[in-house]
């Protein structure tokens, strides 16, 4: 099932890149995001799926609104030769690097039988999370209690990003 | 926008608001949390903004008010962190409560609320900045 959705995602991404109409490209981009949300549901991660759906909806609304106000929504002209070659080389190098890294990972969805398992922290959180933090949603417990400094940095990054957007886009006097 | 969008918005508005608040207050019991709830609330105001036009939406939620909520959320996160790390207020039995009940979990529900304010105000602020300021520049 997940492979089928991944195949759909790849086709939608290719359409989003190759489409000449900006609006259809945005809709294809939205299809990629919602397919990712469905994959998250199949992987038993409802928290991530909720956030993915919401971010995708907000992104689609903002992008469609930004596109509809432009007069020219069709792209014209061809891409330059150098840009094409550079894109192919960069994407090829990226995929080779990722494939080289993925060879050493364990099989998807299985815990390796080694001396120090990678599943030790997650099992520890599941075993002690409720007693130590007192809440039943372990994802929130990890986000806001065990890895709380991570959330602090995330909130600060969001704040500075919004500050930058407001400063750049403010009304000029 | 058209009459259909306005009617649907007025029907759906309350349900979205209730869901956005529910997902924050039950963020420590069921999937959800401050980030998702903030996105839902900001999306409710974006919907209002698109359906009824920017004048009515800004009148209901003034821009300086959003800016203040954004700062209050960030300040709340920092103050809660300092309180939790240096004073240990949230280790008291007052905050711990019964397991699996609404009022439990120590620092996590107030921190969820602060993140909710921060994210909701921030995302709506970006939307307002992108649409309002740009359209007034073109005139």
How would you describe this protein?
- The complex is a heterodimer of chains A (173) and B (139).
- Chain A is mainly α.
- Chain A is built from seven helices and no strands.
- In chain A, helix 2 runs antiparallel to helix 3 and helix 5 crosses helix 6.
- Chain A is extended.
- Chain B is an all-alpha fold.
- Chain B has one domain (3-138).
- The chains are: A mainly alpha (173), B mainly alpha (139).
Features:
heterodimer, A: 173 residues, mainly alpha, 2 domains, 7 helices, extended, B: 139 residues, 0% strand, flat
Mean pLDDT over all positions of chain A? 83
Percent strand of chain B: under 5%
> Which outline of chain A best applies?
extended
User: What's the structural domain tally of chain B?
Assistant: 1
Give the uncertain stretches of chain A in residue-range form. Answer: none
H/I helix tally of chain A: 7
Overall form of chain B: flat
Largest sheet of chain A: none
Mean pLDDT of chain B: 82
* Rg calculated over all Cα atoms of chain A: 21 Å
Give the helices and strands of chain B as they follow along the chain: HHHHHH
Q: Structural class of chain A, please?
A: mainly alpha
The fraction of residues assigned to DSSP E strands of chain A is under 5%
Amino- and carboxy-terminal Cα gap of chain B: 20 Å
Regions of chain B with pLDDT < 50 over 5+ consecutive residues?
A: none
Query: How many distinct domains of chain A?
Result: 2
Radius of gyration of chain B: 18 Å
SSE order of chain A: HHHHHHH
């Amino acid at each position: 099932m997940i492979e089928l959705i991944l195949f759909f995602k790849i086709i939608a991404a290719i359409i989003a890149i190759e489409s000449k109409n900006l609006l259809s490209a945005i809709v294809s981009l939205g299809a990629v995001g919602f397919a990712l949300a469905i994959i998250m549901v199949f992987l038993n991660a409802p928290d991530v799926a909720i956030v993915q759906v919401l971010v995708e909806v907000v992104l689609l609304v903002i992008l469609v609104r930004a596109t509809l106000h432009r007069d020219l929504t069709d792209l014209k002209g061809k891409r330059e030769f150098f840009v094409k070659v550079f894109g192919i080389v960069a994407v090829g190098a990226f995929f080779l690097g990722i494939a080289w890294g993925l060879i050493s990972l364990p099989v998807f969805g299985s815990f390796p039988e080694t001396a120090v398992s990678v599943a030790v922290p997650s099992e520890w959180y599941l075993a002690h999370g409720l007693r130590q933090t007192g809440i039943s949603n372990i994802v929130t417990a990890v986000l806001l209690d065990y890895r709380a400094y991570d959330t602090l940095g995330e909130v600060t990054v969001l704040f500075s990003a919004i500050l930058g957007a407001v400063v750049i886009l403010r009304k000029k006097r | 926008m058209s009459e259909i969008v306005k009617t649907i918005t007025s029907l759906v508005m309350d349900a979205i608001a209730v869901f956005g608040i529910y997902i924050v207050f039950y963020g420590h019991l069921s999937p959800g949390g401050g980030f998702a709830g903030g996105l839902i609330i900001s999306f409710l105001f974006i919907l209002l903004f698109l359906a009824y036009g920017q004048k009515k939406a800004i009148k209901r939620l003034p821009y300086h008010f959003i800016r203040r909520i954004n700062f209050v959320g960030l300040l709340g996160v920092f103050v809660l962190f300092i309180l939790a790390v240096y004073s240990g207020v949230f280790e008291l039995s007052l905050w711990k409560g019964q397991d699996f009940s609404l009022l439990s979990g120590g620092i996590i529900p107030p921190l969820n609320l602060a993140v909710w304010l921060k994210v909701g105000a921030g995302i709506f602020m970006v939307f307002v900045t992108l649409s309002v300021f740009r359209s007034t520049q073109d005139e």
